[in-house]
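Margin note: ligand = iron/sulfur cluster.
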Amino acid sequence: MAAVARKNLHLVLSNELSGAFNLLLQQGVRVVCRPGCTLGELLSGQWGIDAEYVSRRITTLFLNCRAIDDVATAHVAGGAVIALSGAMPGLVGATMRRGGFYAAMRGAMTYREGVAGEENQVDWVRVKLFNLILPELGPGFLSHGIIMTAAELLAFITAREFPAGCFTAPPAIDGRLQSTGELEESLALAGEEEVHLTVEFKD
Amino acid sequence: MDRIARIDMGAAGGPKVTEEPVGQYAGLGGRAMTSIVVATEVHPLAHPLGAENKLVISPGMLSGTTGSMTGRLSVGCKSPLTGTIKESNAGGQAAQVLARIGYAAVILEGKPEGDDLYKIIINKDGIKVEVDNSLKLLDNYPLIEKLRQEYGDKVAYMSIGSAGERLMLAASIACTDPELRPTRHCGRGGVGAVMGAKRVKAIILDDEGMKMRPPKDAEKFRDANRKFVEGLRKHPVTGEGLPAYGTNVLTNVLNEAGGYPTRNFKTGVFEGGAKLSGEAQAELETRRGGNPTHGCHRGCVIQCSGIFNDENGNYVTKQPEYETVWSHGGHCGIDDLDAVARMDYMDDNFGVDTIEMGVTIGVAMDAGLAEFGDSAGAIRLLEEVGKGTPLGRVLGSGAEITGKVYGIEKVPVVKGQALPAYDPRPIQGIGVTYATTTQGADHTAGYAIATNILKVGGDVDPLKTEGQVELSRNLQIATAAIDSTGMCLFIAFAILDQPDTFQALLDLLGSFYGIEMTGDDVVALGKKVLSAERDFNTRAGFTKHHDRLPRFFYTDPIEPHNQVFSVSDEEMDTLYNW
Ligand code: SF4
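Resulting structure:
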């Protein structure tokens, strides 16, 4: 897929709202990348997540609903769904754990390498962040940028009822500053157009 | 813990208490004690609600000590829900207090004539059994409030709600937490109905004047406990994940894996999963002035529990566990944590098992008694249970009976007990445990993920799907052993990953009893418990043909992995070969 022209929306929010995106991040957000590489290359090479952090902290990973044992061999295609989680309790937690002793209990849920990914073009994957990984990587993904349609974003902003004064600096679309009212109006007009949203948290 | 008390509720002239040394049951505690007493003393063909059944209450082997995580209480009997032997355990304060008073087991026997309702008061001076008909049909929260006025706040309470008095097969026995709320339940198998059949409404446990149980080697015990706690604190699951999010941290992962049974086991993914997640729950609890990190008994360092408040900051219930959020949530197509919390409170108050009740409501939804996703409808059905209406009595009898009454074909039960929150088709190993456990479908029966350390049965190639039976067998052995110690099963992750933490657990047991404990001893204990349970079930008429999942798990593939349960009967039948 070729690169798509998108509006760029930048939000600067007060630190108190750092959890505001948690539900969205659990449900999954689209993130720009160059697929066709391994999951390890995507996480560390493209997104800059420390390889040590990946191996020690992200102990449970799913690619398209299948548990991953080796990030170095799992290939990511455009449109893939990637879920990242810390270690989980209980038998099922142990079962899902990367390379874990109980991986045999998963049956068909284990990822098996198929055809290698496609060529190295800009595309997106959907990323879900769970539990301990959510507060640790969520701000990074939000500052790096996520893709939503303008309509989705408008629904999110209005449903979340961002309180007055929550923006530490005025929102900016493609560098142009907006009032909250203007922002909602612009998003309403843009409808299904895609927006590249970046979020910063400040005191 | 050198005495056993027997209370013959049916004795001529009124209940009669006798005490005896532990005798042949010396060294047993928790599940080992309850199961071996039941297997030895209860006629396997006894009616579970009759005079011949016994209700055995036993703290774990380390309960009442200064050891961390040792507050699990086991209750055992022949189950009215499954017809098998049953051990059901709970946290709360009861185990610690009962152990400190000095009882290795309290056994309720017989059955009184007539309608009187009794309370039992256990303290350093012995045991009193008194008639108290003012407690009749009180549910757990008002019941405990009333008892607190008389017995105060420095005791622990065990009780049944209206469901137990009405002998409902889903009835539980509540144990109070440190704040004296009746939130910790021996939930599974209808143990509350057995207590109700014996006409015992409440047990008041008062350890005033009693000391912590002293270890044989105090210094070694202290040292082992320190290492054990350090191990729990440094592990990401027991030191971070469970304290922050509780067991409900599993919702997102199970859902992502396609193993989250949705709308009565029709698919493996629930679109509303993230709204029910432990992450969402913890955030909500913090925002409303509740608390996502709370221990169900003093001495718990993991603190997987929490306090759930309403939007005005008022207490609703304890933090619902993963299985509860699933049973009242995704299983019923409901994605509203407030509705789930309300039903958790109702379950605790009426005294019913949250898993059995939620699964039953899902089956009732399949029968058209409410729509999937209709939280008000689900609450209405649960209210019927609290009122004891004819419909409520059907629902309170659990999923299997509700399914039969309404002619529902696909009812997720094994040996009459509802399946918990993990679909056995994508997670085959857990299906083996559901099918073969001595307890009816039970996820905790194979929970102690420490088998590689225990080295029971050798390693299994993780890339092959064979070996499920062997894994399940080893898990069940390890679990039976841990259930006997009084330790919370959530220690399992730390002892799985950290050999020094497992050694600390062995040293806790060894230094307390003045013996050398090895992994082999733990395995031997687990096998002894399982063998006794299996033997009881065989004598009660259970055969290998009962060790099966409901047929639809073998015939109906589940999305997204399109898998059916495929472990063969022949393989499953080898589970108890040792
Ligand atoms: S970890 Fe949870 S269930 Fe276990 S003792 Fe602590 S609060 Fe209770």
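The interface with chain B takes residues 19, 22-23, 26-27, 57, 59-60, 62, 65, 67, 69, 83, 85-96, 99-110, 128, 130-132, 134 of chain A (CB under 8 Å).
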